[in-house]
Amino acid sequence: MSGKRPDAPPLLSLTGIGKTYANGIVALSGIDASIREGGFVSLVGPSGCGKSTLLRIIAGLIEADTGTLSWPASGTRPADIGFVFQDATLMPWARASDNVYLPLKLKGISWKQAEPRVMDALRRVGLADFANAYPRELSGGMRMRVSIARALVTEPPLLLMDEPFAALDEFTRGKLDDDLLALWQAQRFTTVFVTHSIYESVYLSERVLVMGARPGRILADIEISEPFPRGHTFRESPRYIEICAQVSAALREGAAI
Ligand code: ADP
Question: Which residues are near ligand 1 (CB < 6 Å)?
């Protein structure tokens, strides 16, 4: 796979990124990182360390005040970027299929043309039988699956996720973690995943960027080279515990500064 070549240009490169809000809060300072094409990177850190701000800068929803953000592999920011929030943000009056259709509808694609793609996206998240269900008829985990299908229906090269599973129970969360990894392995979009769970970040990612607050900055950049699919053997392995401890130590050191 091309993205694995060490000399391949990264999808995204951040140099000296800083952001101060109008109220004077320095949300980010001196952020340097690059993310390989097809990679899975988590941003982990306490509330207020700038994870969402960084994700929104990457998405182009807000601008950094300092530094540069470049797209070495593609030259420009991808036209399609999938975004998944903690809240599934579905239209309550629309069926699952219509929620997933929305990004294609906004591109002017007719339902007739879009239908196979919508159904395929629902199938990939395990909801083929729930296309006609309304959000209120679905569990929290299922609503999140619809949200993921909606984010992936345009087949974006980049998926940004802002604490997507934080509100779910542990069992559902673990299942969605595994299903997300399976989708990522099959489709190879680049993923930037925000979480405040050390365990989730280590389980999912090839790389964890550990962040600290005031100002928001990167405390450690930890590579996790364990192969995918990971499953419970990785979750229960000494190596997993060891990496979690490493992330935890970096967070503690950051909090002590
Ligand atoms: P995280 O996602 O890690 O919780 P955020 O990026 O949401 O962190 O916030 C980083 C800091 O910036 C916090 O102190 C937060 O209160 C502040 N902040 C976030 N958004 C705004 C905003 N629109 N205006 C002012 N301050 C903000």
Answer: 21, 23, 25, 27, 45, 47-53, 216
